[in-house]
Amino acid sequence: MLLALVLVAPSILSANFACLGEDINKVEKAGADWLHIDIMDGHFVPNLTIGPQVVADIRKRSRLFFDVHLMIEKPETLIPSFVEAGADLITVHLEACVHLHRVISLIKGYGIKAGVALNPATPVYLLNDIASELDLVLVMSVNPGFGGQTFISGAVEKIKELKQLLDNKGLNPFIQVDGGINETTGRRVVEAGANVLVAGSYIFGSSDIEKAVQSLKF
Fold first, then answer.
1. Environment class of residue 139 by beta-carbon count within 10 Å: exposed (0-12), middle (13-18) or buried (19+)?
2. What pLDDT score does 5 carry?
3. Superfamily covering domain 7-214
4. Is 62 labeled as ligand-binding?
5. DSSP symbol at 150
6. Of 23, 38, 41, 135, which is the active-site residue?
7. Burial class for 20, CB neighbours closer than 10 Å (0-12, 13-18, 19+)
8. Residue 145: pLDDT over 80
9. What is a GO molecular function of this protein (predicted)?
10. Where are the domains of the chain?
11. CA distance to 53, 54, 73, 167, 189, per residue, from 87 (Å)
């Protein structure tokens, strides 16, 4: 059974950075709910993207909810800068945080939402002691670093396991999925319990961006 409300968060990793403002305006007009902003440092993942200044600049161009995904080592060092730049939610990787609870507390101390991401090989049970502090859990359905990758089907069972863990604790954070999302894979992960879909190339590579966005609103 599908959820009544699914939020769509286009990932600007697949946008055309030569006309980034225009591309963001397109997805906003198409009915996107959030804007997913991937921050990569070339160390935690093998790619480099953008820094706080770009986020601050696009904040002036968009009223969307800014969903900032930090795929970086020592995220605590840059969290204040991304808060100042206009992040509404910051997600850090469990694998990148030595003191995860401290990092989550730092984010929430700024009055914004906090999330934790899990790489494909990271088990759900590691969230057991931090789940009550989270506003969002991001299940990566590809190995992070590059857009346009193929969906890892094992993510479906992982989402079910996560949903069960959260239900057992009476918790209801957002369950977000990122990687290889399209109309088919999106439906599978929503049926498993996800309610925020990140899609990059499926949306920004489409000849009809509005149709692509709306096709994910199950």
1. buried
2. 87
3. Aldolase class I (3.20.20.70)
4. no
5. P
6. 38
7. middle
8. no
9. D-ribulose-phosphate 3-epimerase activity
10. 7-214
11. 12, 12, 18, 28, 26
The pair of structure tokens assigned to 33 is: 């709910």
- pTM value? 0.96
Residue with tokens 């403002």: 21
38 is known as an active-site residue = yes
CB 127 within 8 A of CB 101: no
Instruction: Dump pLDDT digits (tens) for 43-54.
Output: 999 999 999 999
36 is in an annotated binding site: yes
**Any binding-site annotation on 21?**
no
∠ CA 169-94-37, nearest 5°, is 105
Catalytic residue from among 23, 41, 67, 178: 178
34-40 and 89-93: which strand pairing? Answer: unpaired
33 is a catalytic site residue = no
Please tell me whether 201 is known to bind a ligand.
yes
Q: Is 42 annotated as a binding residue?
A: no
